[in-house]
Amino acid sequence: MRYNVDLERDHTGRWVASLRELRGCHSQGRSVRGALGRVRGALAVCIEPQEAASAELVPHVHLPERGRRAVGHYDSAAKKLEREQEASRRAAREAIDVLTRQLGLSTRDAAEVLGLSHQRVHQLLRRG
């Protein structure tokens, strides 16, 4: 079973974890991880303990506006980096193909030219 867990900090700085699907089933902890662990224990009181142990907990961390903005900025930067890394891998595979298959360089020489390890060149050749 899957349960959505709302996580909010209280005035003391502790995290309060509340299960959306089970009103009144909540707990708290000093950290997000701690609150999630404790709410699983609270869930075991509300439903069968075996079901609680295997339940999927989906955390929903609620932050003030400036926290949401900072997380959003990070998410955008991380996605941009991922796109750029994929473009870099494609360009490396293309360069390796040209150097090794079209120009006949060894994988070690292609690695030297590209500033990569020969192991990385082999990895990219296999995935290409």
Folded structure, characterized:
By secondary structure, the protein is of the alpha+beta class. It has 2 domains: 2-62, Double Stranded RNA Binding Domain, CATH 3.30.160.250; 66-127, Arc Repressor Mutant, subunit A (Orthogonal Bundle). 60% of the residues lie in helices and 18% in strands. It has 5 helices and 4 strands. It has helices at 32-46, 49-54, 65-102, 107-114, 118-127, and strands at residues 2-9, 15-19, 26-29, 56-61. Strands 3-2-1-4 form a 4-stranded mixed sheet, covered by helices on one side. Helix 3 packs across helix 4 and helix 4 (107-114) crosses helix 5. It is elongated, with a radius of gyration of 24 Å. The two termini are 40 Å apart. The relative contact order is 0.10. The model has no long low-confidence stretch (mean pLDDT 95).
Helix-strand topology string: EEEHHEHHH
Report the radius of gyration as a whole number of Å: 24 Å
Q: How many domains comprise the coordinates?
A: 2
Number of strands: 4
* Range of helix content: 55-70%
By DSSP (H or I, 4+ residues per run), the number of helices equals: 5
pLDDT under 50 segments (min length 5)? none
From the spread of the alpha carbons, the general shape counts as elongated
CATH architecture of the largest domain: Orthogonal Bundle
